[in-house]
Design brief:
350 residues, alpha/beta, D-Maltodextrin-Binding Protein, domain 2, 2 domains, three-stranded mixed sheet
């Protein structure tokens, strides 16, 4: 499905995409679309799904003839769709490759900061456990198999750890959460880097898959002995215990707005123009080590001026009022200088 100068044809194809894929509406009529309505559709990661749902609710309430809809298809699929000319933007946590930028004529912009947290279900343990990157790597390589293993006890002195198996939960291929998590583990463990490496589609040697971020959160919450990894707001909303992670300064840090912002500032300040593709394991005593941007993937040009104008308006709203709404959900706002640079790029696309 490519952009076309024939706006009517594009609108028809886009309505077909909505009717075929959108999970929140039973029919096109239920969306309440008039013949002159414009629907902006994004597709991608489930990590920011609650964010885009909230943004769509608020943005749609403010606009009578423009709607935002978001399809949680996974990061890799989101990149594939926007590269093929489907939709208005993709979303995810995986940096674009040089080939994707060139062949798909794409750019990426950060829209919020996220933190991937190790979540666990360990009845009887009421402490926030400490994890290092190497320990998490050994668990996900299948080498540390019980919760009372010496590697875990060493990092958690004084904690009475049960002698129960660790039930590893993983995400399936094509997920942005996978990329951020494996990017961090690859920096922390040479063995993990050699055996698996950073990837949205890692070949996990152990673990039970959970398709959506919400599925992983629910699986860990309902399975004693389980461990998983999700964007921190899923842990907060599900009241799931999550651990502290050892950062590059040698401090155990918990994911929070402050520690994610510290990780971003350690890389981006003072120029604020790198739009860094990796915020994992950044320097700084307060930096949370499994921090990432969640990106939008955009085509560099559009043949439809009305859609381009509407998309620019949406992005400018995301970089202003949308940040506050994201913060209310547990995501972390982009520092203001970074937002200003992103707005300049949006303006240059119109």
């Amino acid at each position: 499905m490519q952009y076309s100068g024939d706006t009517g044809r594009y609108s028809f194809l886009f309505r077909g995409l909505l009717c075929a894929l959108i999970f929140i509406a039973g029919s096109c009529q239920s969306l309440g679309l008039s013949s002159d309505s414009l629907v902006l559709v994004g597709a991608g990661s489930t990590v920011p799904l609650p964010l885009y749902r909230k943004w769509a609710q608020e943005y749609n309430n403010r606009h009578t003839n423009v709607r935002l809809e978001y399809l949680p298809l996974g990061t890799s699929e989101g990149i594939r769709q926007i590269s093929g000319g489907v939709g208005d933007f993709g979303a995810g946590e995986v940096p674009l490759t040089a080939k994707e930028r060139t062949e798909g004529r794409l750019i990426q912009l950060p829209v919020m900061l996220i933190g991937i947290a190790p979540i666990y279900n360990l009845p009887g343990v009421h402490h926030d456990l400490r994890f290092s990157g190497d320990l998490l790597a050994q668990i996900y390589l299948g080498h540390v198999k019980k919760w009372d293993a010496p590697e875990i006890a060493r990092l958690n002195p004084g904690v009475s750890l049960p002698q129960v198996p660790i039930k590893v939960v993983v995400r399936p291929p094509g997920k942005g959460t996978n990329y951020v998590f494996t990017d961090f583990l690859s920096k922390a463990s040479a063995q993990f880097r050699t055996q698996i490496g950073p990837s949205p589609s890692p070949s996990w040697p152990v673990g039970t898959p959970a398709d959506l971020s919400s599925d992983m959160a629910n699986k860990v919450k309902n399975e004693p002995g389980a461990i998983g990894y999700v964007e921190v707001q899923y842990a907060l909303r599900g009241n799931i215990r999550y651990g502290l992670v050892l950062n590059s300064a040698g401090r155990f840090v918990k994911a929070s707005r402050e520690t994610m912002t510290a990780a971003c500032e350690a890389v981006e300040a003072p120029q604020w123009d790198k739009f860094s593709v990796s915020l994992t394991d950044t320097p700084g005593i307060d930096s949370y080590p499994i921090t990432s941007f969640t990106f939008v993937y955009l085509r560099t040009t559009s043949a439809d001026s009305a859609r381009a104008t509407a998309l620019a308006d949406l992005l400018n709203w995301i970089f202003s009022d949308g940040q506050r709404l994201g913060s209310q959900l547990g995501y972390s706002e982009l520092p203001e200088p970074l937002r200003d640079k992103a707005k300049m790029i949006v303006k240059s696309r119109r």
